[in-house]
Every structure is written in C-alpha cells, then in structure tokens.
Design goal:
With 473 residues, the chain is α/β, with parallel strands linked by helices. It has helices at residues 30-34, 53-60, 64-75, 93-109, 176-193, 210-213, 215-226, 268-277, 284-296, 321-325, 364-383; strands at 11-13, 19-20, 26-27, 115-124, 134-143, 148-158, 200-207, 230-237, 254-258, 304-308, 330-334, 348-350, 353-355, 392-394, 402-405, 414-423, 431-436, 440-443, 450-458, 470-472. It has an 8-stranded mixed β-sheet with strand order 4-5-7-6-8-11-9-10, sandwiched between helices. It has a 5-stranded mixed β-sheet with strand order 1-18-15-14-20, with no helix packed on it. The protein has a 3-stranded antiparallel β-sheet with strand order 17-16-19, with no helix packed on it. It is globular.
C-alpha cells in the first residue's frame, strides 16, 4: 500500500447501487450504509453548489441600466474597428480604449489598492487582416486575491467592432451585441467586485483585434503563459446581447457555453493517454463547464446554462481559443440563437428591414442575467480552493477496486476532498463521496467501469472544479 501523509489516514469506501424510495429520495443500500461513517453517496446532480448570502448580494448589485449605458456609450464611438483611428478623442478604437481604461480606473480607486487597471499593448506586424503594422491594445483590470493571489481566473470581451467588409475601418460599426455586450459584462463585474476581497485573483479584460483574428487575446494568453501564470479558468463573453433569434423567437433565460472536449493543446503522448482511458468528455474545460452549471444555473441568476460540446460555432471562433492553445481551461458564453442581420453588417435599411449591430436590438435585462451567471462562476471559483493537482488513478496492479491519489492543496482554509464518479455513459457526476483531509482514497468499485474525479472543499463548504485523474502510481 502507498505511504500516507502524516495525520491523514487512508479510508476505504464500499459502494453499492442506491435504492430509491417511492418519493424519489435516494437511500444507500446495506454495503453503502456500512461505509456511511467514512463517506456520503448521493445521486442526481450531486455537485451543484447553492449561492450563499455573500454571492446573492453581489449578484443583486449587477445593474441592467449601467450595462445599457455602457453598451450605448461604446456604440457611440462610431466605429471601434482595430484599424480605425487611435488618436481621435471622440471616434475610433483609440477613443473607446481610453474610455474603458478611465472607467476601470474609477473602479480600481475604490478597491483599497486590490485592483489595478492598465493598458497592455504591442505592435502587430502585417499579417492576415492586418495590412500595416498596427498597435493592438487590451485594457486589463486585475483584482488581486488575498489568500491565493497566484491562482488566476480571467473574464473577457472584445471591444473592437466591424461591418460587412472586415477591412472597412471607417464606416459606422456600432458593435452593440458583438461585442459591446461582452465588454459591458466585464466592466460591470469589475465594478461590483472591486469593492470585495476575493481569495484568488480575477482579471477583467477588454481585448482588441478579435474581428481581425483574435490578436489581442492571443497576446494576452501568451503573456500569461510567459509569466508562468496559473490560469485555472478563462471565459470569453462574445455576442451575449440579445435573446431574440432571426425568426423572432425569444429565449431570454438561456445562455450557451461552448466547451471543447479534446484539448486544443494536446500532445501526441497526451492523446494516447486520453484514448486509453476514454477521457474525451473529461478535459479541464469540460470540468469547468460542469462547474458553471453547478454554480451558475439556479434561481439566483435566473438562467439556464446550455452547455454545448463544441469549441465554438461553425465557421466562428472566439477569444477563448488562444487560451486553449496555451493549455488553459477556457470556454465561450454566447446568446441562445443569433440574429445575423444584427452582427457583421453595414448599418442600412433594405426592403424596410433594419440591418446593423445597433443598441436597440439588445436586451439589457438579458445581458444582466448573463452577467450574473459569470459573476456567480467567477466569485465561487475565486473563493473556493483551487482544482486539485496531480490527480492520479493507480494502475500498477490488476485490481477490482480503485485507488486515487492527489497532491495536498496549500489553501489555509482547506477542509478536505470529495471523490466523484459516474457511469461512462453519463455526462454529469452522479455520486459524491466525502473522504476528508487526505491525499489518497480507495473505492471498492472497478476503475474499468466508471469515471472518477476529485474536488477540494474549504471550511465554508465551497467546492473546486473536479480534477480528472490520469493513470499513474
């Protein structure tokens, strides 16, 4: 048997199929009852986390009127095309950049020194959709964590805009839905969270160059990587401004979350491991998506999170992709069904129909609800322990049980761990076992038949995303 950390006894949990009462309440069968002293087994969506009082208060402060004002102000810059003028104080991407920075600095001023706001710039040499050397600038506000500042979560939207011709840098391109809506979300979260003290660091980013080829987000992602940043989750919010589809139908209480399965950054060796264990649905990004559903899909946000098992829509791509390329878990929020007459279009009227990405086609209450989803997710991530590291499933011997190992977290309020499992045909975790403050646990259930995971719990009862164990010793 493996050695245990001092003061951390190894516990063995025996599982059996749960019986269910006529009322639908799960019972633990006799074998499970025998293990009740060392672990708890539940069925259903067992990983959901209800919002606490602190989070509910935060979500109530998110203001649809402020979001509307931000969207309208960004649209009023005329165009925010990446190649548009950068030194005009009233029009163009430079004016938008400076206004966003000014607002972020106002939020930072009330943070007690915890938040900083700055520009992140570089010169992009001529490349696809960039005909001449162009300065591309992201606006970055960083709210430093008070307990685990090196653990980072990022939320982004892009502030550049476009019309039908992606190279047209002079025509009006209000970009209200795509993507002033996402920038308004980022700014509103920065405003609300600046007054608070997260345990981990949250970074709020308005990126440029998205429409020309994800240039700003690629630069941001490479900067994080070069600095060795521990980015444990990134979300882009792009086209989250409307609940109305092109056929006029509305779905104001659903937001899509696009999440890749096979990692973009996967190496050949990692691919071989994934194929051997069947981990196509258990990437770090998929675990992040499950976490989003657990904490962001409830009555406090008023939203249903529709997780889509794709990296992005057909023929499209967002600012989460450069983070995926760097090996960071990342996903994209977007509205439930798009109206293509109001994105990537010249502003015009044809046959009595208005085209163009104008503010009047946005649903600001909807944006506020999507903002609450993001807020619930980011705040819970920042207050919970980090995702367990070095999660392994011991495969050195042929056995009919499962031994799991992981590294002990460093959080001072760490209370323990939970093992989760599900049938291989299930998409969500269906069982949770409390295993205490230990770094190993054995389950009397064959590793060949189910999927396992591990998550950390702190003293406030907040849970981390699940870590999917890889084969090892």
């Amino acid at each position: 048997m493996p050695e245990q950390s001092a003061g951390m006894p190894r516990r063995r949990t025996v599982l059996a199929t749960a019986a269910v009462t006529a009322a639908g309440v799960p019972l633990i069968a006799s074998a499970g009852q025998a293990a009740a002293a060392t672990g708890e087994v539940r069925r259903g969506r067992v990983t959901a986390q209800a919002p606490d009082r602190e989070l509910r208060k935060l979500l109530q402060e998110i203001d649809a009127d402020r979001i509307e004002a931000t969207v309208r102000r960004l649209a009023a810059f005329g165009t925010r095309h990446t190649l548009s003028v950068q030194d005009d104080p009233e029009r163009g991407i430079g004016a938008a950049r400076d206004w966003i920075l000014g607002e972020m600095k106002k939020y930072a001023a009330v943070s007690g020194g915890r938040m900083t706001a700055e520009l992140q710039s570089y010169i992009q040499e001529p490349a696809s959709r960039i005909p001449v050397a162009t300065r591309i600038t992201n606006v970055v506000a960083t709210l430093r964590g008070s307990v685990a500042p090196d653990r980072v979560y990022v939320v982004a939207g892009h502030y550049d805009s476009r019309v039908t011709d992606v190279m047209d840098a002079t025509s009006d391109a209000p970009g209200a839905d795509d993507d002033a809506s996402g920038v308004a979300l980022v700014m509103e979260l920065a405003r609300v969270m600046a007054k608070r003290r997260p345990a981990a660091t949250i970074v709020f980013v308005a990126v440029a160059g998205e429409e020309q080829g994800l240039y700003g987000s690629r630069y941001a992602a490479t900067q994080f990587k070069a600095a060795g940043a521990d980015v444990q989750g990134m979300f882009t919010n792009d086209i989250i401004g409307s609940s109305r589809a092109d056929d006029g139908t509305r779905d104001p209480y659903t937001v899509r979350l696009f999440t890749e399965g096979v990692p973009t950054s996967e190496t050949p060796a990692q691919a071989n491991t994934r194929r051997s264990v069947g981990g196509e649905n258990d990437s770090a990004t998929r675990q992040l998506a499950r976490f989003v559903s657990d904490v962001g899909d409830n009555e406090a946000t008023g939203m249903n999170v529709r997780v889509v098992y794709r990296r992005d829509r057909y023929l499209r791509g967002g600012d989460h992709i450069p983070f995926l390329e760097q090996g960071y878990p990342a996903a994209r929020f977007t509205e439930p069904a798009e109206d293509f007459a109001h994105q990537h279009q010249d502003v015009r009227v044809e046959d009595g129909k208005q085209y163009g990405d104008l503010p009047e086609f946005c649903d600001f209450d909807y944006i506020a609800r999507v903002t609450r989803v993001n807020g619930a997710v980011l705040w819970t991530l920042a207050q919970a322990p980090g995702t367990p590291r070095e999660a392994r499933i011991v495969t050195s011997n042929l056995t009919n049980d499962t031994e799991l190992k992981w590294a002990l977290g460093t959080e001072p309020d760490l209370a323990g761990y939970e093992v989760v499992w599900r049938e291989t045909t299930e998409s969500e975790w269906t069982h949770v076992i409390k295993v205490g403050l230990t770094t190993t646990h054995t389950v009397d259930l064959s590793k060949d038949n189910v999927f396992f995971g591990v998550r950390a719990v702190n003293r406030d009862g907040k849970r981390s995303p699940v870590a999917f164990p890889l084969p090892g010793n």
